[in-house]
Amino acid sequence: MNVNKLKEKITLHPIMSLLFMIGITIVLSGILAALGVQATSRRISLTSLEYNTYIAEVKSLFSLSGLKYIFTSTVSNFMSFAPLSSFIIILIGIGIMQKSGFLKVAFTLLTKNAKKITVTFVLTLICILLGMIGDLSFIIMLPLSAILFETGRRNPTLGIITSFAGLTCGYGVNLIFTSIDSSLVSLTTLASHVLDSNYTIETTSFILIMLVAVFLLAFLITQISEKYLVYKLDKYEYAEEEFEEEVTLDKKQKKGLALAFLAFCIYFIIFLYNIIPGLPLSGKFLDNSQTFYIDKLFSYNSFFSSGFVFIITFGMIIIGLFYGVGAKTIKNHHELCDDLGHSLDGIGRILVLILFASIFINVFKNTNLGTVIVTGLSTFFNSTHFTAIPLIILLFLVSAIATIFMPSSIARWQLLSGVVVPVFMNAGISPEFTQIVFRFGECTTLGITPLFAYFVIYLALLEKYNQKKQPINILKAIKYQLPFILMTFVLLLTILIVWYIVGLPIGVGVFPTL
Known about the structure:
By secondary structure, the chain is an all-alpha fold. The chain has 21 helices and two strands. Strand 1 and strand 2 form a beta hairpin.
């Protein structure tokens, strides 16, 4: 008892942890800036393809001007913080599906005859594959995973932790050529032109190694979750009134499911037609100025990209509404309007967490600490003379470390690609394989960095389903991810080394070596 009370006293609330990290970052920026800490790198200009000297310096926020910046930018930064608006809007759609009873019926029908490990595997696989829609996958899958597990009378915390592991450990692993891949390929291609001006990379250059990595990773995460983590979590107490009756399909529920399915099909056909190019009056959601189809979908100028959150939410509202009308769980517009806000009940603590997380990320970014660290890693990488497997391991480690301080894949690759790609090509390793090493490396640490914007959503949902008096702090949230991180590190690095040694094709007509 005394030990537990002592732990409770010394354990920082996540908000206090964020405040502590904000303060440390500000003070550290002042000290490092006063000491003139900087990192210098020989960097390739991606426009002229010539080497130039790049100097990254720490910017101090431990000053009057720095404090003014923090206070004046906090509100605007919070309002523009991507997870905030997306999370609230998606919760509206999830709320009406949950309150109408659709999610309970659908999840029960889908899982009642399935083994727990099968459900976990399918969930993990979906999380990995949903990387194709970018960061929105975190907003959708984390709350839905909690509801899925709770519906199956399992600990919703386990669902949140498992889905977050699938989303982060699978962040750089996908069967589909994503918008992030497209941006990275552009940088990789430009960097390769330093040595070969005619080098090109196709969208099918990664498919074979990704196919193997996706399924092995989904299997690994499932095993860790079901064979280890499930026994480490506290027992979850369910509200018995939610499970008083068996879910059986009566006429009303069948009618609700039929209406929901029909409405969704019509909505999906309209949506699909507007993202297909080349048909009469089709492709209205695309940016046709782009070359790759994935860029037409996700470029900043496409309606699909800018409106995707609401497109998904509106689809959820349609499903919940039509199910509720058919099943008689929504009887009038008053109940509909009340149901729209169901998932937003008690969201106050989540909003406060997001506020302080947005401040921390903004402060760290503007001190330039991340850029200095990644630039320093680039300099270190360029100073080594490794080849073959040691070179692959080095980039894997550099990518993993850099991700902790700069979660953005594109921003990191902008700093690293100009140095890394030519070094790998001189060692006889293809640019495509180089990019895969970089992406696999980031998968191993993305889930444990509070600088990743969607880490706070993971933390907030853990806290939402926390039944203990003691809050889930940041260190505990990270601790949950460590088994996944360590085993993903071993798995992905092993895949890279085996693939390189055996010389298997990584994609259509592409090999690890030149």
